[in-house]
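Q: Alpha/beta fold hydrolase, please. Structure only.
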Amino acid sequence: MSHFTLVHGSCHGAWCWAEVIAALTRLGHSARAIDLPAHGADRTPPGEATLDRYAAAILGAIDKPTILVGHSAGGFPVTLAASLAPEKITRLIYLCAYVPALGQSIIDLRRAGPRQPLKGVVKADPGGVTYHADPAGARRTFFHDCPEDKAAAAVRLLGPEPIAPQATPLPPGLETPPHPRHYILCEDDRTIPPEYQADMARPFGRAVTRLPSGHSPFLTAPARLARLLDLLATEAPSLVP
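A: Structure for Alpha/beta fold hydrolase:
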């Protein structure tokens, strides 16, 4: 069976993957989620968080070949980690995630989207080091299809997001690691427009699966997401360009 390393997106932490880890374990896999620096239980000061430190944290958590899964903004650090240490990664899975492009940061990509559902939802904090998600806006965008109890708990767990890593493009030449890649497109996503996900996933060719979910399938459909990850763990490399 396979080992998965699960990487969260903006304002989240390892906590968001708990039900997926349990479901993957029931399917016979092993899985671990990490807190990126300055997220969750990690005590790195937000001003010291960088994209390089994110990648280093991911690689430091890997002790055996792994399938690396990145959600949303997690698409950037998983790509960098895989490019820096390709021998540690067996394949990459992007879950409604930003796909790095030459010379563009996450902020650049978000601004280039066809719609801006996060306008007014994410707001810079005093000092400009972090931003936060407005609770009502997060409920509307991140968790609109979640049961009320799960959405309320998730909103309480959201933390400030360091801005500098999201303003940093990947170093040139590291945008496309040499691994099989797959994109999971969330069709009812109200954070990253589904049509924009399709555009970012175009280089993946046939290696795209559509999931009838909002932005947080790890909360709304953890068992279904785990079954999909299980299938992708043995996906024929020929499906990946």
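A: Brief note, in case it's useful. The two ends are 24 Å apart (CA to CA).
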